[in-house]
Amino acid sequence: MNRTVFEGGAVRGGVIASAIALLCGGCATPTGKTPQVPPVEHALETAARWDFGQDRSVLDAAERALNACSSRAHRSVAEAALLTLARRADAPRGARQFALQQLGRFGSAEAVEPLLELLRDPTFAPDVSSTLERMRDPGVDERLRAALPRLPPPLQAQVLRVLGTHADPASVPAIEPFLTSDDPALAALAIRALGRIATPAATELVARHAAVAGRAAREGGWDALLSCLQAAVSRGDRVMAERCVMAIDGAGAPEYVRAAAALATAPMATSNERLVRALTMLGSTNGAMQVAGAEILRRHVDAAGVVRAAGAIALMPAAAQIALLGVLEDRGITAAEPAVLSLAAARDPAVRAAALRTLGAMGSGRAVAVLAQNALEGPEAVKVAARRALRRISGAGVDSQFHLLLRTAEQPLRLELVRAAGERGDPSLVRTLLELTTTADHALRREAIKQAGALAGRDEWPRLLDGLLNATDEADADAWLGATEAVALRVPQVATELPNRWESVTAPAARAALLTLAGRLRLAEMLPLVATAAGSDQMTVRNAAIRALGGWADPAALPPLIAAARHPDAASRRLAQRSLVQLLRQCTGVAPADRAARAAEIAPLLEHADEQKALLAILGELGTAAAAEIAAQHLDHTSVRTEAELAVLRAARAPGAVASPAVRAALERIAKESDAPDRRDEAAKLLAPPPP
């Protein structure tokens, strides 16, 4: 019979096979059939040869066998087999680490002694330590505590880490002696382990040996003290909490530790004590103290107390002011607004910006003018904070103050308020904004038009459309166009009025404006009207229609543009030709063959090199034989010869394109005549017969 040799003796394969029968027995699938689990002898023997970089399927098979263990007896057999593999000296490292990982699931108290022996091997010590940490059998810690005194210091350190991770209160007596160890590392591990346990007994020891915690600061000594303090507070143990605080102070803890202790014990203090403590800490020059003081106000002081604290904000250092303003912003206590307003003019830009942010969260109508003024002047960070606050602010009287200031404030302030009005998204401000669209100030008028478009709805649409149709200033017309487009995109139903408006207006400029808007919206019902207008006798109307069609992205717009591309007027004809190329580029949803056919129609109409080059670029992108044939027709045009060659070469790469006689002829010309060697070479390669 096969034998498998392990460190410490020999185990016959038959014994392992018997163990596997126990492992797999009684494990039935939902259908009542015994699962096909590989025999453990085979699974573990195969896994014993595995190492990193190899196929993990052998480990998967071993895991399936182990996962089939449900009874205590099965798990015991699995534990023994895994221990044997973990200790096997001739097994690869990967296999032994796999066994240790699985022992984290299957290991019991019986595995502790063998694992402690393996812990002596520095190669596997981290893996063994991790395994012990994951073993949660109640007897594991008992065995570890019993072994702890007789272990050498390196192993004691590993066991202390494990006991700390498990945090079993029964481990406190076993850990205590190490607090006075001559080995600083062991003392540090002991204090950290007790900090994780944090029972009254552990807390008493940690407080008594606070000096050890101080010396082990980098190893988590202060964390241990704070953990014990937090546990005492959670238990409501005021005496022990005070004992921890005294220990922290007596050990000379740094400011950040004392700040954390003050914050932790705040729930046990009276309301007045919390307020006094918070104010004292905010008045400190230490940043950690200031932050902790602000946190006490945020979590543990009532609104009235916070307002009292805000009353002293002018006397605090800048960092403390910012911290307290953050509390006021989070809690939104409106009664503190006067104190916040007083800092909106602070010399320190950071304080000023923090005050403005806070006003955005809790300010009332009286803060609106202050925010608008700050949005106009000062450092960029202050302006940004003010503008964001103007968008957010929603306290009492804010809306009425906006209406008032939009009508009465000086121009620079009103301009800032108009911007904010649109960004606030408050439809009630639309009518006030529309009133400003007739003001004499150009900048204010155009901003009011823009923001009215951001807020307007169906009811305001006619007024906006009137503004577009009656605009006499080009910049105003652009603003009205943007505003009407914004509303039509937001409320599509309003655009159905455009055909009726077309019939009611006759002025060329007004009709041109309607055509431009229709082109931006691409309304299907307006396409016939725009197509007709592209042949208008009025140049303003005709050119507006041509531009609109160029942006339509619908092949149905091509016929009127082709007709316009033959117009007697040179300017309209050039505009139509440019629009044809633009439209063809945008028709990406059309099949390449159909786009190539359209390009064939367009190509003879193009009179200028710029449009011809643009069309050639499209032909190259189409990548069809037909596209290459159309591009080849431009090889005789000196002004676009380079672009024509590039388009032919690119399109000719399509499968079967070189089979076209016209394409082959074009490639032969490029191979012989091109002034670019790389293009000659590419043409020759395309012409060459494929390899056999």
Descriptive tags:
692 residues, mainly alpha, two-stranded antiparallel sheet, 42 helices, 2 strands, 68% helix, disordered N terminus
Produce a short descriptive summary.
The chain is mainly alpha-helical and about 700 residues long. It has a two-stranded antiparallel sheet with strand order 1-2.
Provide mean pLDDT, rounded: 91
In spatial order, strands of the major sheet run 1-2
User: What gross morphology would you assign?
Assistant: flat
State the secondary-structure class. mainly alpha
Biggest β-sheet strands, sense, barrel: 2 strands, antiparallel
Number of strands: 2
Q: Please state the CA-atom Rg, rounded to the nearest Å.
A: 41 Å
- Any low-confidence stretches, pLDDT <50, length ≥5? 1-38
